[in-house]
């Protein structure tokens, strides 16, 4: 939100182009890195739960803020890679398709930010998992059924991945 406020020219927006905002955003990313577990994971609600959803949502916010602000911070980039690696190697117990689509989006954004093919195999595996969890009716599995809110998030993530890296498999 701070990165968007920094870039949004609206009447009464006291955050617009204020240099301190850039410092706050970078400090927030550095704090996320320093407060994460040694393997790049983070907790959601419970201590030591190492939640994929919290890790993926926060990674997305960090990557997008970093990119939008044009930051240049090797510590942040190292943290992004560590968190991405953890997400790639962690499998949740439930079927949360929105998390897998979100992780796929993070991997795509990070691959482009770093100009790296490091996660190409993982991106393909995540995409196949997401598509395998799609019901023949079209909705995506969330635990034991359909959830319209998470379905919308899943579609949004897949649409963004498609915009970043079009493929017939994803389009179909």
Explain what the structure shows.
Helices cover 63% and strands 2% of the residues. The chain has eight helices and two strands. A two-stranded antiparallel sheet has the order 1-2. Helix 2 (19-35) packs antiparallel against helix 3 (52-69) and helix 5 runs antiparallel to helix 6 (120-132). It starts with a helix and ends with a helix. The relative contact order is 0.11. The model has no long low-confidence stretch (mean pLDDT 96).
Q: What does this entry show, briefly?
A:
The protein has about 170 residues and is mainly α. It has helices at about 1-5, 20-35, 50-70, 75-90, 95-115, 120-130, 150-165, 170; strands spanning about 140, 145. α2 crosses α4.
* Tertiary shape: globular
Regions with little confidence, pLDDT below 50 for 5+ residues: none
Q: How many extended strands?
A: 2
How many whole angstroms does the radius of gyration measure? 17 Å
Helicity range: 55-70%
| Helical segment count | 8
What is the mean pLDDT?
96
């Amino acid at each position: 939100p701070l990165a968007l406020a920094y870039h949004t020219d609206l009447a009464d927006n006291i955050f617009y182009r204020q240099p301190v905002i850039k410092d706050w955003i970078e400090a927030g990313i550095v704090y996320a890195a320093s407060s994460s577990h040694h393997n790049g994971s983070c907790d959601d609600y419970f201590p030591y739960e190492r939640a994929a959803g919290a890790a993926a949502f926060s990674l997305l916010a960090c990557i997008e803020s970093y990119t939008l602000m044009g930051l240049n911070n090797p510590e942040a980039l190292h943290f992004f890679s560590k968190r991405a690696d953890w997400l790639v190697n962690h499998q949740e117990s439930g079927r949360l398709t929105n998390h897998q689509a979100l992780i796929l989006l993070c991997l795509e954004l990070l691959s482009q930010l770093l100009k790296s093919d490091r996660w190409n195999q993982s991106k393909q595996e995540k995409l196949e998992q997401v598509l395998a969890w799609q019901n023949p009716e079209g909705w995506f599995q969330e635990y034991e059924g359909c959830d319209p809110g998470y379905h919308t998030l899943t579609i949004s993530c897949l649409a963004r991945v498609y915009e970043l890296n079009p493929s017939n498999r994803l389009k179909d």
